[in-house]
Amino acid sequence: MSGPATVPRRLGVVTIGQTPRPDLHAVFAAAAPGVDVAVDGALDTCGPGELTALATDGPYPLLVRLADGSTREVPRDRLVPYVVQAAGRLAAGGATLVVLACAGEFPALACPVPVVVPGRVVPAALRRLAEGRRLGIVTPNAAQRPFADAKWRADGFAVSVTHAAPGRPAELAAAAARLRDAAAELVLLDCMGHDEASRAAMANLSGLPTLAVQGLVADLAGALV
């Protein structure tokens, strides 16, 4: 007689844009074998009119990817309530851990289960590794650069900040050149959209040791879940 069926653990991932995001599902599933990975989009419930209203000028614009593959810039504070709702949906669906798939600076997010916020955990993980070294930060959009610069300096790092959107090789090459000129010693792709291929390309282009937030956070989540 067989015993009761084992219910797989579930890891929730919130993208600040819309689903589908097979790229995020793949990297988190690889980091957490045997775990059910669910990806929810903070803006999945938004129609075209609501999206247009959200994507207007405001402080701290974050680059979000929509379901059709296009991108828009949406101020962070307008995204927070949608992110909280998506995290709640994942928790209600059985997730025991939720990851925010954005490296920007976010406040604590109310949720019934623990939430991994990359903008808080990654600096802590890099503190000793980058100690005494200039850190090159690559944000996804130019408008985010001053916010990233202020955040990383407040976290105690010596930084040079530039930008390159995921999926734009020319921007990545230009960012690599700028960081070489700025005498960066270690590069961080500070955007959850930059995958392992982007990390390898930046390392090759810059000639510098390179880390990607996506891989760091996926490995952490896999260990925690």
Number of helices: 8
User: Radius of gyration, rounded?
Assistant: 18 Å
What do the pLDDT scores average to?
A: 94
Spans of at least 5 consecutive residues with low confidence: none
What percentage of amino acids are in beta strands?
15-25%
Class by SSE composition: alpha/beta
- What is the helix content? 25-40%
Largest sheet properties: 4 strands, parallel
Q: Please give the number of β-strands.
A: 10
Q: CA-to-CA gap between the ends?
A: 30 Å
Order of helices and strands: EHEHEEHEEHEHEHEHEH
User: What strand order characterises the main sheet?
Assistant: 2-1-5-6
Shape: globular
Description:
The model has no long low-confidence stretch (mean pLDDT 94). The strands form three sheets. A four-stranded parallel beta sheet has the order 2-1-5-6, with helices on both faces. A four-stranded parallel beta sheet has the order 8-7-9-10, with helices on both faces. It has a two-stranded antiparallel ribbon with strand order 3-4. The chain is α/β, with parallel strands linked by helices and 225 residues long. The chain has helices spanning 22-31, 48-54, 76-92, 118-126, 145-154, 169-181, 196-206, 213-224; strands at residues 10-15, 36-41, 61-65, 71-75, 97-101, 115-116, 134-139, 158-163, 186-189, 210-212. Helix 1 crosses helix 8.
List the helices and strands and how they pair.
Elements: E1 10-15, H1 22-31, E2 36-41, H2 48-54, E3 61-65, E4 71-75, H3 76-92, E5 97-101, E6 115-116, H4 118-126, E7 134-139, H5 145-154, E8 158-163, H6 169-181, E9 186-189, H7 196-206, E10 210-212, H8 213-224
Parallel strand pairs: 1-2, 1-5, 5-6, 7-8, 7-9, 9-10
Antiparallel strand pairs: 3-4
Helix pairs in contact: 1-8, 6-7
